[in-house]
Design a protein that fits this description.
Distance between the termini: 93 Å
Radius of gyration: 31 Å
Number of helices: 2
Shape: flat
Structural class: alpha+beta
Number of strands: 2
């Protein structure tokens, strides 16, 4: 039994074509025929002055609100502080000041 590449290629192309047109057709159907114009999403009242530990991120599709702890320090800052040299560092020679 030999492998027929041309037959395999035609069958695969047909499968992808059917899948693509099915996807596009279902998207068009749900967009144009199944949409309900009576559905109105409630709008949330925006706060005028959010607290400093609340971050609100908005995009065209979503709104996300992140609330941090009171004295929150990000892990990247903690990591960098671990390697940052200190002003009161005594790792040098102790006889420099005498």
């Amino acid at each position: 039994m030999s492998f027929d590449g041309l037959k395999w290629y035609k069958r695969t192309a047909l499968m992808y074509a059917i899948g693509t047109w099915t996807l596009l057709g279902s998207c068009a159907y749900y967009t144009f025929y199944n949409s309900d114009p009576r559905v109105v999403l409630p709008r949330k009242e925006e706060e005028k002055d959010p607290s400093p530990n609340v971050r609100i991120m908005k995009s065209s599709h979503m709104t996300s609100e992140i609330t941090y702890k009171e004295h929150f320090v990000p892990y990247s800052t903690r990591f960098l502080e671990f390697f940052r040299p200190r002003a009161d560092d005594t790792s040098g020679s102790r006889n420099d000041g005498k």
